[in-house]
Amino acid sequence: MDMHDLLINSYGDIFESELLEEIESIAKVVQFKEGDVLIDYNQYIKTMPLLLSGAIKVMREDYDSGELLLYYLERGDTCAMSMTCCLGEKQSEIRAIGEVPGEILMIPVQKMSEWIGKYKSWMAFVFESYNNRFNELLNAVDTIAFMDMNDRLLNYLFEKSKIENSNVVYKTHQDIAKELNTSRVVVSRLLKALETEGRIKLNRNSIEILVK
Amino acid sequence: MDMHDLLINSYGDIFESELLEEIESIAKVVQFKEGDVLIDYNQYIKTMPLLLSGAIKVMREDYDSGELLLYYLERGDTCAMSMTCCLGEKQSEIRAIGEVPGEILMIPVQKMSEWIGKYKSWMAFVFESYNNRFNELLNAVDTIAFMDMNDRLLNYLFEKSKIENSNVVYKTHQDIAKELNTSRVVVSRLLKALETEGRIKLNRNSIEILVK
DNA sequence: GTTAGAATGTAACAGTTGTTACACTATCAT
DNA sequence: ATGATAGTGTAACAACTGTTACATTCTAAC
Fold first, then answer.
1. What domains can you pick out in chain A, each with its CATH number?
2. Nearest CA to CA, how far is A74 from chain B (Å)?
3. How far is B176 from chain A (nearest CA, A)?
4. What is the mean pLDDT of residues B81-99?
5. Is strand D less than 7 A from the beta carbon of A188?
């Protein structure tokens, strides 16, 4: 699929045609792979990314060691931190890493703010995005504050399954432990119990979800 | 202090004078006490509050029972949820409760969005607010994800001390337990240990912070 | 003063999560 | 085939948090 089709596909319904044309003439398409670090802590960001395909995971890091998955970005999403950084002169508080390979559109800072005054649909999109990210952060809070590790693990598997669009999750126990900020042994223990209950099937490097 | 002075005090530096005049002619001042529920879950919000004085705590509730303090709003702050609700037709995901008595300016929805196109300073304020709330939520995530209960408790005491501008925190163990989503016994136990270490002094209905 | 209720102190125990240690298996490069 | 490495299984234990139960103290209302 070329850029035009991807753009129409993800943003055709929400942006007016002049804006779509302007985006197409200005934005650069960047491909990313799994594991690519798209934004890192303390980084200044000069372009705003619009996700065309694939998925990006947004992580938060502790001051010394821990790390935690906050949420995934998917087609049609953008990163709240980028908007913030573009509008102010702020450093990123999060890390964004490719999870499912895909493509992003990079919008230069000046355009980002210029369009807010120029296109109603762009302004609405920016606010809508802030709102969505805010609510996703609230969800992350709910998860870590109110769920035990078993439910967080299940929740993780379901979320990951959703963005992969598959019942098989290709992750090692160690990977999962890192994203949930726990230890590998704990993950293995809980997964094994879930397998015994018949809810999942464990394989080397992958987990199949049997019952949702 | 009358409304004019309060307004100049908190927002005089960031808003242009025409906007300040317009706010003064349109906004209503509302006094709130400790415990007043200013915004509740699932509520539709039709006015945007600007905090002139006092402090407001923002809480998140679990589907069944738990509750958790996310952050405090202080002078010059506004509520991200209100902005969201005003711009879209969304319901509140949080509860806002008066913590330190004070006053808020209520801005009608229409003005809120009208001003975004009309005043650069207002737009900047709205984005800045979104950004601040987002970062405060990230802080809340850090706290619950990476700190143990003892550090969360200390952190709570310091934050509360800050908004009260006093080393004495007037809260019962039960109050604190509720805001940290834990149990009273746990709070009492940890507080007693902190007292033994000489970091705080316990009294009925209040806690004095000795060492920060 | 008596009494009811709220706030606090504390013990004992249960459940969850984190840590250490080690065994075993699969995979890959040589 | 051999060895190295990564991934997984599991036990034993430690640490932290949550629960139940009950005693004590303080305060306000009568």
1. 3-144 (2.60.120.10), 147-209 (1.10.10.10)
2. 19
3. 15
4. 89
5. yes
